[in-house]
Structures are given as C-alpha cells and as structure tokens.
Design goal:
Shape of chain B: globular
Oligomer: heterodimer
Order of helices and strands of chain B: HHHHEEHHHHHHH
Strand content of chain B: under 5%
Largest sheet of chain B: 2 strands, antiparallel
Strand order of the largest sheet of chain B: 1-2
Number of helices of chain A: 10
Largest sheet of chain A: 6 strands, mixed
Number of strands of chain B: 2
Distance between the termini of chain A: 34 Å
Largest interface: A-B, 28 and 17 residues
Helix content of chain B: over 70%
Helix content of chain A: 25-40%
Strand order of the largest sheet of chain A: 6-7-8-3-9-10
Radius of gyration of chain A: 17 Å
Number of helices of chain B: 11
C-alpha cells in the first residue's frame, strides 16, 4: 500500500534521513524502532505530510504523495497520532474528534465514529465536552488516537503512543492498537518500548542515525546484532 | 474638583460605550488576524480610514446613503485584505516583521489618502449626523447607535461562527497547531485568506462607522492605534468578543475620567487600567 523509496529529509542544512526505503502492505502492522534522534518522528511526519522531504519517492496505492500539499495527504487514508499527542488543547474533546473527521468523506459518519472511539476508549465518553487540556496524559493519548481513527484511516501512523504513560495505561494502549489492527487498518508504530513494539508487529525496521540499518520479520529484527548495538543492551536478553 | 451630576456621568458612560464599541469593531479584525494568522496588521487602521474616505466621497459627493456604501466597501476591502495576506504569505514573516511590513503599507495608504483628499479636515454631513434620540435625560446620537449595533452584531456573530461552524472549528485548530490541522485535511493557506478577507471587510465596516461620527484627517490613522491595540490585548488575541468588552471598558473609563477630571487624564487612566489588568489576569496570552 505505502511505498517509500530513497527518502531524504533535511532540517535546514542538517540532514535527518538518508535514502530511507520502507513499505507497508494492506492491513500490516509494522514497527519502526531505533534510539532517540534516529529520525523516527521525522520519517513518520514526512509520511503524514507534516514535514516536506528534500527528495525521494512516496506513493500510496501507486499515487504520488510527493507532489501533494500537506492537507491532501489524508485523502489517501493516512492519519497521524503525533509524538506528544498535540491535541488542540483549548478545544473540547468532541471538537478534537470532529477535526479528525474534517474530511468530507469521514464527516458523513461522524457521530457513529465518535461512538466507535467511545467504545474503544470508554474513559473518553465522560470527557467529550471537557477541554482537551484538562485530561490526564493517558486520556489525552486516547483522544489523539481517537482523533486519528475519526478520519477512517487505512494507514494509522502512531508516534510514541506509550510515551509518559503508566505501565497499566501502556498495556491498555497496546490492546487498543491490536484492536485497530485486527479491524483491518494498517499501522506504522514508532515505539521506544522496543520489546513491546516487536512483539506486536508483523515486520519491523531499525532506524539509526537517519538510515535503515535492519529490516525484516519482527522476530528477525529482535535478534539482529545491530539492535543490541543501537540500544547498548537496553533490550531484553 | 466638583463632582459632576448623575446625568452627566450617565451621559459620559454612554458615550464611553459608544466610542468603546468602535474600538471593539476596529479591534475585532485586528484580533482575528493577530490571533489566528499571527499577522499584526497595522494596515488594518489604514484600510479603515481608506474606507472612511471612500464612504465620505460616495456619500458627500455622490449623494449615496452612507450605509449603502457598505455594499461596495465590504467586498472591496475583503478583496484588499485577501490580496495583502496573499502577498505577506509569500514572505513567511514573523509576527514582528508583519508589523513592520504593514506599517510600511500604512504609510503608503496614508500618503495616498493625503494625495487625493489632501490633509484638510473632511466631515461627512449625512442624514444621520444630526439625528438624536432622547431616552430619559440622555441623548443618543444615531451614528453612534449604528456603530454600537454593528459592533455587537458582528462580534457576537463571529463568536458564534467560531464556536459552532465547521469553518470556525477549523480556524481554531489551525491557530493552535497548523501542521497537525493540515494533516487532518484543513487547508491552511485557503483559511488564512478567508480570515484575511473577513478582517478586511471588518476594516471597511469600521471605516464607514468612522466616517459617520468623526472628522477625518490622514494623520488621525495613528491616533487610534494605541487604544485599539490595548483593547485587542486586553480582550485576548483571536477572541471575537474580547475586543468589544475591553473596548467598552476602556471607552467608559476614558469618558468618565474626562467628565470627572479633565480630558488630558483619560489616556493615563485607561492605560493604567490596561497595565493593571494585564498584570493581574492569570494565565492568558
């Protein structure tokens, strides 16, 4: 479905990604792991249209994404759960979800979609009319995922969904990701928690200093020597 | 110092509300552009005066009813607002640089007004000018009443639109986090032009109100800047109702000071009020 080839991204003059290639098939759950500063967020943001790449190719179902302005990326069924959640803090939870369904195609089923988010995250239901900023970190993460699901995505980009959450909340979050994946949505998951990310994924990529250094079945990446080196033993043995 | 009568105080407060509503109307477009587009559009004042002169020209020379000039002025100044935003967007200016660029634009418009209408005083002698209602012991001039009605209707109308329409939600989302809003399909450029158009139209409407009540000279553009900026900052950037209420508060404090003490005290009182409120008000930008 998604095909990224030879992608290069820069911040000003500083290169952040070199010649990155990655594919995601229909309904696949792919994890992107790598140490801090490897360029994981940069890659996800480029796929979401938030950051414009310097060169390379990105297509979704053969459709060229590179030529599109940022606001048209979501037409292809891409939805982003950004790092740090980035909710619209002064808007209510319901309004945040409605922005998720801004696209005309998603807007028609908006009420049913809000109901769907509440079913997936029951804690959100009581908070619909509260300002997003008043929610706890875990609840905000639920709303961020809910906002992306409102767009009826075919490819969900999840950037560090467990960041700053309690172990219990992390567990709930991975459960929700499994549910979304089981319903047929393709997922690209960026995670600091490498063990959990590789456990849940079909395939994985290891990104280090802006380059893909390993890829393959999640179990192969787990055993890859570069992974241990990249994290200096931070993974489970 | 003798205390003025209750009637004089009430009349002062009333005229304060009237002038405050014009502060609010001028501030409304400024606040939207500042809060939502991060453009501090000083040219808003120049456009308001250009609209005022245009209204004066059409009404005094052409004999058109001044309110009817809105039919021409609103679309014209909406287009002007859009054109300026389109131009500013080419350069991706910081808010401070937008202030400098639009200051330059203000000087150009001022020079243009002076070139065409000269620096002489111009006063629109409209059918509304002499009309006054008398309510109780108070005089209510019709032009000021029109300004108040327009300011209230537009402020509340825009407030409701920002809260309850899809467009309003999109604009608030863009103001908070434009890249993420764009990732959900909101076209930042198109919405920026729409806001600039609304802001331009508001400058035009404020200009007609200026022409109804005030004597125009090109240099009096700058006389409005300080107090309207105060109303915008006090009311909260991007707020639709804020400038109206803040403008009324400043207007009343000025007018009552003029009645109780002397006119020269008015700016001191209103700006002291501004500084005090900005210091005391918690957690707002």
């Amino acid at each position: 479905m998604l095909e990224v080839r030879g992608l290069c991204v820069r911040y000003g003059a500083a290169p952040a990604l070199w010649n990155v290639s990655l594919t995601i098939g229909d309904g696949e759950l792919v994890s992107l792991v790598g140490p801090n500063g490897a360029g994981k967020t940069t890659l996800v943001n480029a796929i979401a249209g938030v950051h414009k790449p310097a060169s390379g190719q990105m297509t979704i179902d053969g459709r060229d994404l590179m030529a599109l302005p940022a606001h048209r990326f979501c037409e292809s069924g891409i939805a982003l759960v950004p790092e740090g959640r980035r909710l619209f803090a002064r808007m209510s939870v319901r309004e945040n979800l409605e922005i998720g369904a801004y696209r005309v195609a998603a807007r028609i089923e908006r009420e049913a979609a809000i109901e769907g988010v509440c079913a997936l995250f029951p804690a959100v239901r009581d908070k619909l009319d509260h300002p997003a900023a008043s929610l706890s970190g875990g609840q905000q993460q639920m709303v961020a995922i809910g906002r992306a699901l409102m767009a009826k995505p075919r490819l969900l980009l999840l950037d560090e969904p467990s960041l700053g959450l309690s172990p219990l909340m992390v567990h709930a979050m991975f459960g929700a990701i499994r549910d979304v994946h089981a319903a047929g949505t393709a997922v690209l998951l960026v995670e600091q928690n490498v063990a959990m990310a590789l456990d849940i994924a079909d395939r994985a990529y290891l990104l280090e200093e802006g380059r893909i250094v390993a890829k393959g079945a999640a179990s192969d990446v787990r055993d890859h020597p570069d992974l241990r080196r990249a994290y200096l033993g931070a993974t489970e043995q | 110092m003798t205390l003025p009568s209750a009637t004089l105080l009430a009349q002062s407060a009333l005229s304060g509300i009237f002038i405050g509503s014009l502060y609010g109307l001028l501030g409304l477009g400024l606040s939207l552009s500042w809060g939502l587009l991060h453009v501090i559009n000083l040219a808003h004042f120049a456009f308001a005066f250009l609209a005022a002169y245009l209204c004066y020209q059409l009404a005094s020379v052409g004999g058109v009813d001044p309110l009817l000039t809105l039919v021409l002025i609103v679309p014209l100044f909406a287009a002007l607002g859009i054109a300026v935003q389109w131009l500013l967007a080419r350069f991706s200016l910081s808010p401070l640089n937008s202030l400098l660029a639009t200051f330059g634009l203000t000087a150009i418009v001022e020079a243009g007004i002076q070139g065409y209408w000269t620096a002489d005083f111009r006063k629109l002698e409209s059918v509304y000018a002499g009309e006054k209602l008398r309510i109780g012991g108070l005089f209510v001039p019709i032009p000021e009443l029109i300004t108040l009605a327009l300011a209230v209707a537009l402020s509340f109308g825009i407030y409701a639109a920002m809260r309850h329409t899809r467009l309003g939600r999109a604009l608030r989302a863009l103001a908070e986090d434009a890249p993420i809003a764009a990732a959900f399909g909101i076209n930042a450029q198109a919405h920026a032009l729409a806001i600039a158009g609304v802001s331009g139209a508001l400058a035009g409407i404020a200009g007609v109100c200026l022409a109804l009540s005030f004597t125009l000279t090109p240099s009096s553009i700058y006389a409005w800047v300080g107090v309207v900026f105060a109303a915008v900052m006090l009311g909260g950037l991007g707020s639709a109702l804020g400038p109206l209420f803040a403008g009324a508060a400043i207007g009343v404090s000025e007018a009552v000071t003029m009645a109780v003490a002397s006119p020269s005290w008015a700016p001191i009182v209103s700006f002291t009020l501004l500084i005090a409120l900005l210091l005391l008000r918690p957690g707002r930008t």
